[in-house]
Amino acid sequence: IPLLCCTAKADVRYRLGFGSFIDKKLMPFVDPRPEKQLSPCAEPCAEPYGFKNQMRLTQNTHRFSKEVQEAQISGNLDAPEGGFDAVMQTLTCNKSIGWRERARKMIVFSTDAGFHYAGDGRLAGVVTPNDGQCHLDDNGYYTKSLEQDYPSIALLHQKIKEKRVNMIFAVTENHKHLYKQLSEALPDISSSVGVLADDSSNIVQLIEEEYNKISEKIIMVDNVNASSGLKISYRSRCLGSGPLIDTNVCDNIKVGDEVTFEVTLEAVHCVDKRNFELLIGPSGLEDTLKVNVKVLCDCDCESTVETRSSHCGGKGSLVCGICDCIDGYTGKNCQCDAGDLSSIALEAKCKKTNDSLPCEGRGQCICGQCQCYTRSNPDEIISGPFCECDNFNCPRHNRILCNGHRCDCGVCTCGPGWTGRACECPIGVDQCLSENGKVCNGHGTCVCGKCQCDESYSGPKCEICPTCPTKCVEYKPCVMCQQWGTGP
């Protein structure tokens, strides 16, 4: 009864319904043994089933209380449950569930387990995808449980959005993270996740808190999709006074608050369907704004056509300043005799690879051949059959292109006596010769016109050696021998 009081506080016109789910009555979801098919629990319990609508929406609160209390317990074998089948039937079976047209709809999904989703049915040989349709019999049972796979998250999102239903996931602590992820995977949907006590004693408080969270948030949704050729964007300052920001969500909205959204609709490209009924409204509510949209894809100038125009070389019609060439001709002025080739095939002849731009983006493809752009600097030239080469994108030395030598298609071509990526290295050892005629004074190697000295030697020509013995010490034994006949 506390739940009834909670609901009554929200709206005196409330209706309550009740349904329950177990899982598909197939291995590995349910124990296949005959006795377990009838009573899968340790203690006697009801036969398992996919989903049953126990009671359609009604204001008969006593019956609701009685149905919930008398609902029989059953069980499945694996950890996840078939709750997605239950949600799909609840969303799609308007007549059986008793949904009203203009009412705030809310589904409280209460469970202590995870969920099966599209693809899991294959484990039991169920390969037919879920069709997202109503399949409840007169007793409220889901009749396609053994024939169709579980719904995908994307299909659930589509149906929840279509029906404008608010979702509350009342789950135990150990599954809170899983259902948080599920809630985040349902964009533009009013959904919330609350933690259910192990004995479900806090269910009334949980529903009231999560309902208040949903009620205080406005999420603007629409029926625009990529196939419509339209793009929609929202801006609002919500309850603030600052500038408009890009958002379709406003929080902390109380009764009586007024929130304004600025909506921009853009035609991205033309599609066959030019007339479109745009529906905009808050998620979870039936209130919508209907806008009849007509996409204008035709220009006024298209009514004036100059056939066999001289501007098109007599090979096409001039429409809005552009040549519409006759078969066999293409080009800006229909100047290309394409033969059996289409304009796409001619353009392909201007591509170096299938993934590259025509003429590498540095020229025009005319009649299947590249005409490279000219640069403002007449010394800079773009060349090559695909305009892939130039004479100004080569390595530099001291900021000088190729050190003053020639740049050819990204590679420096060095003059006589020079080498290196930027022609920075002179060939030969003339610049490394010391006064004694030795290369690097005999204590190094000449690399690119400069000495790379051996260990302990330094200087431009490796002439410095602070740790080496002096000449006096070096010639001492010889002098002593020649002059005094002593020494080693």
From TrEMBL:
Which InterPro entries would you find in this protein's record? EGF_extracell, EGF_integrin_1, EGF_integrin_2, Integrin_bsu, Integrin_bsu_VWA, Integrin_dom_sf, Integrin_I-EGF_CS, vWFA_dom_sf
Entry's Gene Ontology cellular component terms: cell surface; focal adhesion; integrin complex
Per the record, the similarity remark reads:
Belongs to the integrin beta chain family.
Major subcellular location class? membrane
- GO biological process annotation, one example: cell-matrix adhesion
Integrin beta subunit VWA domain: residues covered: 1-299
Membrane topology type, per the record? Single-pass type I membrane protein
The record ties this protein, via Gene3D superfamilies, to: Laminin, ntegrin, alpha v. Chain A, domain 3, von Willebrand factor, type A domain
Question: One Pfam family, short name please?
Answer: I-EGF_1
- One of the record's GO molecular function terms: integrin binding
Keyword Transmembrane helix listed: yes
Q: Does the keyword 4Fe-4S apply?
A: no
Q: Which organism is it from?
A: Strongyloides venezuelensis
Could you tell me which PANTHER family the record lists for this protein?
INTEGRIN BETA SUBUNIT (PTHR10082), INTEGRIN BETA-PS (PTHR10082:SF60)
User: What protein name does the entry list?
Assistant: Integrin beta
Q: Tell where it localizes.
A: Cell membrane
Keywords assigned by UniProt, alphabetized: Cell adhesion, Cell membrane, Disulfide bond, EGF-like domain, Glycoprotein, Integrin, Membrane, Repeat, Signal, Transmembrane, Transmembrane helix
